[in-house]
Specification:
The chain folds into 2 domains: about 120 residues, Dihydroxyacetone kinase, domain 1 (Rossmann fold, 3-Layer(aba) Sandwich), CATH 3.40.50; about 120 residues, Hypothetical Protein Tm841, Chain: A,domain 3 (2-Layer Sandwich), CATH 3.30.1180.10. Helices cover about 45% and strands about 25% of the residues. The chain is built from 11 helices and 13 strands. α10 links the parallel β11 and β12. α3 packs across α4 and α5 runs antiparallel to α6. It is globular, with a radius of gyration of 19 Å. The two termini are about 25 Å apart.
């Protein structure tokens, strides 16, 4: 039997994985000397409250190899194979932690998959892997399917401010400084696992419309798609965006979810993202 493992940045809603045989390894959120495990010892409301109270932006760190080793050993002892699906290796060391753990557990049969994505871009791949595993597919067959999905996943987002991305080094300092000075609203896309600042828009309203326009160019308005609207502590805007895309696109699956803390650290409050792929 194949056991699925992912990390907490996958952003999967609890409603989609309830009852699933899935291990989720938490990333660490660090406020000064205090370290918390994402969605285990700190929830998202507390995360934003601490930012306001402390006036600092926390840092994040990937899970230690030990977290993965424990799971690999348990699965191997029970006679199972393990498939790990992680956040993009271009912006996190989680993939390397999972690989190092594999080298430390030679008795276990483990494969580690780089989603080259984040948030529900990773989450959708996890869901596909769970579905394929239930169908009795081998790890090789599941990886072949994931490669197809990974190629088709599109992520476009607009943060309310570039301050967080600039401070975390996720987007170039010169580009973000200029856009901030001109009070432009950025459009960012994830391409081959890397965040790229692709457009600068004059207003928030136009930036949100640009998300929809780009989605139409990427997946088409008639093709059936799986889609997620992910927001950074901006529920009402997220609801409105979901309503619009459901009206304008052929959504087979459409979910709304708050951005996990380990990613909100970089995007900040007010972020809106569209994540989708053709079914």
């Amino acid at each position: 039997m194949i056991k699925l493992v992912t990390d907490s940045s996958c952003n999967l809603p609890a409603s989609l994985i309830q009852g699933e045989d899935l291990s989720i390894v938490p990333l660490a959120i660090q406020f000064g000397n205090d370290t918390y495990l994402e969605d285990v010892t700190i929830d998202r409301d507390t995360f934003y409250r601490k930012i306001e109270e402390l006036g600092i932006i926390p840092t994040t760190s990937q899970p230690s190899p030990a977290h993965f080793v424990e799971i690999y050993k348990k699965n191997a002892a029970e006679g199972h194979e393990t498939l790990v699906i992680t956040v993009t290796s271009k912006h996190s060391g989680t993939y390397n932690s999972a690989l190092l753990a594999k080298s430390l557990t030679p008795q276990a049969k483990v494969e580690v998959w780089d989603s080259l994505s984040c948030s529900m871009g990773t989450g959708f791949q996890v869901l596909e892997a769970l579905k394929a595993s239930k169908q009795g597919k081998s790890i090789a067959e599941i990886k072949e399917r994931l490669a197809e999905i990974r190629e088709r996943i599109h992520i476009t987002l607009t943060p309310a401010t570039l301050k967080y991305l600039r401070m975390s080094g996720r987007v170039g300092i010169l580009q973000t400084t200029l856009a901030t000075a001109l009070q432009l609203k950025p459009i960012i896309e994830i391409r081959e696992g890397t965040l790229e600042l692709t457009k600068k828009i004059r207003s928030r309203t136009r930036a949100v419309q640009q998300l929809i326009t780009i989605l139409g160019e990427q997946v088409g308005r008639e093709n059936p798609i799986n889609l997620a609207v992910v927001h950074g502590h901006a529920l009402e805007e997220g609801k409105e965006l979901l309503k619009r895309v459901k009206q304008e696109f052929n959504c087979r699956t459409a979910v709304l979810e708050e951005m996990v803390s380990s990613l909100a650290v970089h995007g900040g409050p007010g972020l809106l993202a569209l994540i989708a792929y053709r079914v």
